[in-house]
Amino acid sequence: MTPDLTDVESRLYGADLDAFVRERSAAAKELRAEGKRAEAAAAAKLPKPSVAAWIVNRVAREEPDLVGELLDAGARLREVQLGAGSAADLRAAGEAQEAALRAVMRQAENVAAERGSATTGTLERVRETLHAAAIDSDLAENVRRGVLAREQRAVGFPAGIAIPDERRRAAPAKRAPAKPAPERAKPKARSQPRDEVAAKRLERAAAAAQRAQETLASADAELAQSRDAFDGAARELDRARQALGDLERRADQLRRAVDRAEKAHAKAAQDAKQALARLRALEP
């Protein structure tokens, strides 16, 4: 990512959620005007963050120390788990991470409440995302920068973490070679075909796991979009209900005003009729 695009990303994901699309269009237009067409195209494709991701970004920008403490606590817990730490060390590291997560969540609840998005589902997705960032160093960096586009789920250690040598199970000691059997009794070698079969099975399992991960990622994205749409519809419904209540109160006021006007009109008509009758009576 170029410096220009990094700056745009930081600016967009730090903006108000409702202004994201407008700010993205403006940023792409600025880059095109500067002749940076590739950066402009990339900026135009930056996805609008989900509500939960936006809350995480806002907290990361407003409370970087708290978020930093959570991510650092997660890193320490990974070190203890992968470094064969004692049960006491593991418990202390886990408690420290949980305490840091609670502190960040208190701020997240405030941000969500200010936006009117403090629903149980949204806050749970925020918690899951923060927990996932605590155990995934790559995700932690995006959270630390406040440029997250979608909420995430904690599914254990991220792929690619190497298990230290001291945590690996020691290989069994090699046995002394047995005396060779008579030539006629020597069995046919079968280890090579078994290794090939095992390798093919492992390859198929790895491919299946990769497809499953891709399917899960796609499902997560669709779920996030559906949740965003639902949250937006719920907010619109609340606004519509509020507007309907206001209109009903206004209609009641106008109805009472019409009743008063009709009574006044009827009285005025009666008074006019009586006055006209008296005038006629006085005419010669």
User: Major sheet: size, sense and barrel closure?
Assistant: none
* Poorly predicted runs: 157-174
Query: Structural class given helices, strands, pairing?
Result: mainly alpha
Radius of gyration from the CA trace?
A: 35 Å
Question: What's this model, at a glance?
Answer:
The chain has 284 residues and is an all-alpha fold.
Question: Could you explain the architecture of this structure?
Answer:
With 284 residues, the protein is an all-alpha fold. Helices cover 74% and strands 0% of the residues. It is built from 9 helices and no strands.
Please specify the SSE layout and strand pairing.
Blueprint: H1 3-12, H2 20-33, H3 37-44, H4 51-62, H5 64-82, H6 87-115, H7 120-135, H8 137-145, H9 191-282
Helix pairs in contact: 1-3, 2-3, 4-5, 4-6, 4-7, 5-6, 5-7, 5-8, 6-7, 7-8
Task: Tag the structure with descriptive keywords.
284 residues; 9 helices
